[in-house]
Structures are given as structure tokens and as C-alpha cells.
Amino acid sequence: MGLLEDLINRSGSNCELCGATANFSTYEVPPVSSGGLDGSLLVCDTCKNQIENPGAMDANHWRCLNDSMWSEHNPVKVIAWRMLSRLKSEGWTQDLLDMMYLEDETLNWAKATGEGLLESDKIIHRDVNGVILENGDNVVLIKDLKVKGSSMIAKQGTPVRRISLDKENAEYIEGKVGAQQIVIITKYVKKT
Ligand SMILES: [Zn+2]
């Protein structure tokens, strides 16, 4: 059997998002390499069109997620999460997102396309002058800093090479001072 037939069997001939009973196609959840049953879902034309065209979103159509977000199938959960995230300004979608539970691995998959992230939500590290810092940049300290967990003081002007950014906190970077790997607050460094 082909993927479409497998999905029709799995879903009982319903769009796995809105329950529509006609105009099906398969939707491979990006980014996937293998596709297949565990990476795909059965969707109707209406759902597919809106998934692929964020500008065509009809928020009311997605009230269907109230039911389909409870699917036992990960590809369905992932798309439900992404559509709710895309519509998070609607308010009701946030309530559903709060109720939704995804395993870590599935949540990472759902987040993999950056869906629902506003530019302002992205974590951006900036130095004392507001210059954006990136992994691998070199910076200097702009004041003497006590190194946590040691008696060392890193002096103002000390170079810190090849910094790495804290993925979860825009205020922290890590880098080496001498042989020591230290955590530094971004407002105390200047990019060089
Ligand atoms: Zn549908």
C-alpha cells in the first residue's frame, strides 16, 4: 500500500486536523527526510492550503484543533502545535497550547521550523554598545570581573576569544580567559 492509503486507514478517511471527509492529500511534516507514516498526516485541501500559506490563515477554521490536538499521532500533534503557535495572537489558541503536552523530542520537532517565533522573541545577544554577538566572536572585557568559583579577577581589557552564546539567555555568553572557561554577562563585553 502507498502512503496515502496508509494514512486513510490510520485516520478512518478523515482529515487528521479538521475531520473533513474529502479532498485528501498527504502532507509531509517539514523538515523531514524520510517522510513515511510517522512523518506525515492526511490533510484536506483547506488545511493544506493554510499550512503552506500563512497569509491565508482563517483562524476560525483552526478551532478544529480543539479536538485534533489530542491525536495520538506525532505528525498530527506537531502540525497542531505549529498552527496554534502561528495563531497565538488569537488568545484561545494560547489556552490550547497550554493544555497540550508534547514529549521533548516531539516538541523539538514542532519547533524546528521556527513557527510562532516573533522576531522579538528570538534570543539576541548584544554587547555593551548594542552590537549583535555571534558564536565564535572575539570580545574584550570592559571592566574587571571576578571569576565565579575561583579567586581570579579577569581584568578590564582582557580578550575573550571564540565566545559561545547561551541558547536560553540573551544576557550570558561563555568564553575562555586564559585557560579558564567562564560565563560572562554581555553588557560587560565589547566586540572586537
Ligand atoms: Zn482539514
User: What general outline do the C-alpha atoms trace?
Assistant: elongated
Question: What share of the residues does DSSP label as strand, in percent?
Answer: 15-25%
Structural class computed from helices and strand pairing:
alpha+beta
The share of residues in helices is: 25-40%
Overall pLDDT level: 91
Low-confidence stretches: none
Question: What is the CA-atom radius of gyration, in angstroms?
Answer: 23 Å
Give the count of helical stretches.
Answer: 6
Ions, cofactors and other ligands present here are:
zinc ion
**Secondary-structure element series:** HEEHHHHHEEEEEEE
Largest sheet: 5 strands, antiparallel
Spatial ordering of strands, largest sheet: 8-7-6-3-9
Please give the alpha-carbon distance between the first and last residues: 60 Å
How many E strands?
Answer: 9
General description of the model:
With about 190 residues, this protein is of the alpha+beta class. A five-stranded antiparallel beta sheet has the order 8-7-6-3-9, with no helix packed on it. The mean pLDDT is about 90. Helix 4 (about 75-85) packs across helix 6 (about 105-110). The chain is about 25% helix and about 20% strand. The chain contains six helices and nine strands; from the N terminus they run H-E-E-H-H-H-H-H-E-E-E-E-E-E-E. The structure holds zinc ion. Zinc ion binds near residues 44 and 46.
